[in-house]
Amino acid sequence: MKKPLTILASLGIAATLLSPQAAESDREISELAALHQQAVVAQNAGNYGEAERLHRAVVEQMVRIPSFPANEQARQLSNLASVLNLRGKPTEALPLLRRAQGLLRKQPSEDPAQYSTLHFNLGRTYALQRSWAPAEQQYKEGIEVLTKAGVSDRKYLFEADAGLAYVYWKTGRLTEAKARYEAALQFVRTFAPATHPVVRRWEREYQAVMKELGR
User: Which has the closest alpha carbon to 83: 201, 206, 198, 215?
Assistant: First the structure.
């Protein structure tokens, strides 16, 4: 299997698609890649119910492929956990993320974005469970992974800004929350419509922070 092509799907998921050259030689891989792409499209569109269904199908199919690498299994588990978090299901997401961690220990990835996204997904999971300290730690560890790899592209960092903003808001650090929300929103507005559910949520949270600062 050739090295996958890593892409970033907007709003909630670092995703992998196999290169067309690799897919052409393996029908199962080709079908899996097509299913995965459908899941990415649904998630980017904010259709999270459909995205969850498709990501589950990807996870179910990948385990039937003997040659499917452990680190790519980890990526797809993280993808599913991401959309579960978006649907408010952190208790279902956490075991998947722990499985992903185990698979990466078995077969490390050369893609720093995979590790950072796993950290960010764990951060969101813990935040949804109101476990603020581990949530903050996971977001910071994800940023550190990218920093050490020399990655500064905002498309890999804006979700961490929003995630930390939420943690700071809920732990009373309103000035820090304001700055992080503004950084995340400034970037996401360049490519996502204002009607996207994640953008709308971040806007509501930002306005709540501003209201508390104005008291």
Answer: 198
CATH superfamily of this structure's domain 5-149: Tetratricopeptide repeat domain (1.25.40.10)
Parse the chain into domains and list their residue ranges.
Answer: 5-149, 157-215
Using an 8 Å Cβ cutoff, are 178 and 185 in contact? no
Q: How far apart are alpha carbons 192 and 148 in whole angstroms?
A: 28
Instruction: Please measure the distance between the N-terminal and C-terminal CA atoms of the chain and give it in whole angstroms.
Output: 58
Contact status, residue 103 vs residue 73, Cβ threshold 8 Å: yes
The answer to whether 70 and 110 are in contact (CB under 8 A) is: no
Number of helical H runs and strand E runs in the chain? 10, 2
The per-residue pLDDT for range 35-77, each reduced to its tens digit, is: 999 999 999 889 999 999 999 999 999 999 988 999 999 999 9
pTM for the whole structure: 0.88
- Any idea which residue has 């040659």 for tokens? 67
